[in-house]
Amino acid sequence: MIKRYDIFEWNRFLKPVPSMNEYRKGIMMRKKQTEKVTITDVAKAAGVSKTTVSRYLSGQYHALSDRTRTRIKAAIEQLNYRPNQLARGLKGDRSYLIGMIVADITNPYSTAVLRGAEDVCKRKGYSLMVCNTDNDPAKEREYIFTLQSHRIDGLLINTTGQNNGFLRELANDRTPVVLVDRKMPELGFDTIGLDNEQATSELVHFILNQGYKRIAYITEPLAGVSSRQERAAAFARELTRLGIPADDLYEVDLHSPESLMEKLDHFLTDTEGDKRAIIAANGVVMLKLISALQLKGVQIPGDVAVAGFDDPEWAPLIGSGITTVAQPTYQIGVTAMERIFNRLEGDTSPAQNIHFAGKLIVRGSTPAVD
Amino acid sequence: MIKRYDIFEWNRFLKPVPSMNEYRKGIMMRKKQTEKVTITDVAKAAGVSKTTVSRYLSGQYHALSDRTRTRIKAAIEQLNYRPNQLARGLKGDRSYLIGMIVADITNPYSTAVLRGAEDVCKRKGYSLMVCNTDNDPAKEREYIFTLQSHRIDGLLINTTGQNNGFLRELANDRTPVVLVDRKMPELGFDTIGLDNEQATSELVHFILNQGYKRIAYITEPLAGVSSRQERAAAFARELTRLGIPADDLYEVDLHSPESLMEKLDHFLTDTEGDKRAIIAANGVVMLKLISALQLKGVQIPGDVAVAGFDDPEWAPLIGSGITTVAQPTYQIGVTAMERIFNRLEGDTSPAQNIHFAGKLIVRGSTPAVD
DNA sequence: ATTTATAATGAAAACGAATGCAAAATCAGG
DNA sequence: CCTGATTTTGCATTCGTTTTCATTATAAAT
After folding, report:
1. How far is the CA of B225 from the C1' of D2 (A)?
2. Cα B314 from chain centroid?
3. Does domain B196-328 have CATH number 3.40.50.2300?
């Protein structure tokens, strides 16, 4: 089932060594080991054994006399010693590294989450390896391998959903995996994200209450991305429940601008004269949407009301402000990372699915109409 | 000179071990080594020695017979082997890790640079450890230590300028350090950024040519940040050269909104009736500026023209668009990272100072006036 | 067939830190 | 000063690789 991908593509990175002879002659360039100071040096300087220094390093103060402790500390400061995490990791089976695979690092949502995640890592003495996949499953796969090679202690991922086998394998090696924004129930991982049900229904109801009769929903392709699916489904369900046809759900490919334009044209002519509104499924879509509307000379909210998910920093500045549903992004990052540490600390409870409530922020783009 | 900071604060992260006895009993929780497959297993499965497998891993194909190569490859795939980078790094003195210390990860400028940097890393088989300092020198210092402990092979930094001693020390250990956006000439590191001279002068001239008589320049505090200083200096110089008083250079603290409001009030009343413009020194300032102007009910460009540095995604959408000077951010990231690899590959030429030209993007916020 | 170059291989010693085990030092109480 | 408990300490091994230094197989040249 799992495609056995040739993971050793990675050695393509190495320049081919030209010939055995040259190799032998040691021509290869490498970082010269500048008399790096090691635990041995510290031990020598402090007049104790490596063991003792090691104990100091890992905080086993209870096993050290005050005198020794002081001397080691002094030696370390004097020599400017930095313990080698590679060695520590190799022996101790902990790299103090957490991987974070992000679908699109330039998306403000991602960076906000990242920021929260990073703060927690720092607090715990861990560091973050950040990987950007551009939503490309192949890149994602390569990154999973790389991170595995670095023996990360945990992974926070915004997955494309195309590499479940590899993720499962990672988890089998006792590496906690936490999903952000996008669920994959079959994997049984902790998942953190927005309560899409609540958020969507709140937004839809608000818009209808403002008096709009037709609502379009514009989203990136639903295929495989749970958050997109959940929002779209909730949108359709709410409308249907209220007896309104949910025909205007448009999937657009943001890479081809015409795609969006076409859908817009269709909706706008179809609803000519009606009180109508458009919902953008996330911040990126919203940006494109507004750009497209401006290009067509369509007035917001005069000709059409607009609202969307995510609350980008610029939402208040467009016209009289765009109505949005904000996500607690920083909190999502924090919570996700905390799940990882909980797992590392031995929590074996069943996978948790934590969703945060979205917060409706009403602005000028959705005025009440009669 | 260098303050000897107690680097071993870091072991504060470790839970104190309760007592020697308990410790002896091995109560400590640790990740159980699940029969991880090692190079030895691969060697065994392929019927060769570890040495040979290692050669395969590092791409020394010239030293391998086809038969051996095939067998090793098969063994690796079958066993699902992932080479341990910690061990490789320990022995080979290369971690395949590059550190990136960013002042503010939520700033789109930073993420755009990050994206470029990351792409290069990936291409080279390296990974990126990302650290966010929030412009806090203490955090920066801690991160430098941490990264050093992880034996990063290179560092890309957007420095606060308060930890030069430690950066120099890092560089002494033969770790290439490349500065982004902010120069520190005394350190002698490669530096990549915008050509602030050219960019600023181009912008200022454009605005003057459009017919504006008074220009305000709003920037975050200049203290120690070269890019801010360069832009502000260029602004003042250009005006002075043209015989215009450069009085309206305002440093504002973005954390206190009143700070900006005050300066704005001052400038706007002072120039009542004049043709006037305001330049924001970067994207973040611009956002605050526009927000403040909207709050005061000041029309752009009716009451005041606006332009700024960075070209945030939303710049085209505000009113009839905001005029900006765009930086080639992705390119900056790529170039910076390439400098690191050049250094790693042995380039010992003097420090380079690469600045890219900014590109003036004219939009509706700065119309010609008579 | 014998020498001589060259291509393929392997045994064993690092790399820097953590740790099981055992020994040395210290202490409390007599 | 001695005994037994307890606290401190260190030796030697281990983690998974890379690399040095040989050694063995193969081919080319005589």
Report:
1. 71
2. 21
3. yes
Same topology, domains B94-194+330-356 and B196-328? Answer is: yes
- Helices B196-209 & B226-241 angle (0-180, nearest 10): 40
Distance of CA A334 to the CA centre of its chain: 11
> Domain A196-327 belongs to what topology?
Rossmann fold (3.40.50)
Nearest to B287 among A8, A61, A313 (CB): A313
Q: Is the minimum CB–CB distance between B344 and chain A shorter than 8 Å?
A: yes
* Residue A68: count of CB within 10 angstroms of its CB: 18
Chain A partners of B11 at a C-beta cutoff of 8 Å? 57-59
Q: Nearest CA of chain A to the CA of B348: how many Å?
A: 13
Mean pLDDT of A245-262: 92
Secondary element (H or E) of residue B194: strand B190-194
Could you say which residues from 211 to 230 on chain B have a Cβ atom under 8 Å away from some Cβ of chain A? none
Where exactly are the structural domains of chain B?
Answer: 7-91, 94-194+330-356, 196-328
Weakest-pLDDT range from A91-95, A356-360, B19-23, B310-314? B19-23
Find out if CATH 3.10.20.340 is the number for domain A94-193+330-355: no
As beta bridge partners, residue B102 has: B132
Picking from A36, A291, A317, the nearest residue to B291 by CB comes out as A317
Q: What pLDDT does residue A245 have?
A: 87
Confidence (pLDDT) at A34: 54
Residues in chain A: 370
Q: Which pairs from A264-271 meet CB under 8 Å and 24+ separation?
A: A264/A289, A264/A292, A264/A293, A264/A296, A267/A214, A267/A216, A268/A296, A268/A298, A268/A303, A268/A304, A271/A214
Does B59 contact A145 at a Cβ distance shorter than 8 Å?
Answer: no
Q: Which residues of the protein are close to the nucleic strand C, CB under 7 angstroms?
A: A 19-21, 33, 36, 38-40, 50-51, 54-55, 57-58, 81, 83-84, 87-88, 90-92; B 24, 26, 30, 47-52, 55, 62-65, 67-68, 87, 90-91
The CATH architecture that domain B94-194+330-356 belongs to is 3-Layer(aba) Sandwich (3.40)
B361 touches chain A (CB under 8 A): no
Specify the pLDDT at position B34.
Answer: 55
| Chain pair A-B, CB pairs under 8 angstroms | 233
- At A120-154, the pLDDT tens digits run 999 999 999 999 999 999 999 999 999 999 999 99
CATH number of B7-91: 1.10.260.40
Half-sphere exposure of B23 (CA within 13 A, CB side): 13
In Å, how far is B241's CA from the nearest CA of chain A?
Answer: 35
Percent of chain A with pLDDT over 70: 91
The residue ranking higher by pLDDT, A28 or A65, is A65
Residues of chain B with Cβ-Cβ distance to A124 below 8 Å are 13
State whether residue A254 sits within 8 Å of chain B by CB. Answer: no
Q: What is the pLDDT of residues B256-277, one digit of tens each?
A: 889 999 999 999 999 988 999 9
Q: Angle between the B108-124 and B329-344 helix axes, to the nearest 10 degrees?
A: 40
Ranges in chain B, pLDDT < 50: 1-9, 12, 14-33
**A347 Cβ under 8 Å from any chain B Cβ:** no
More confident residue, B4 or A159: A159
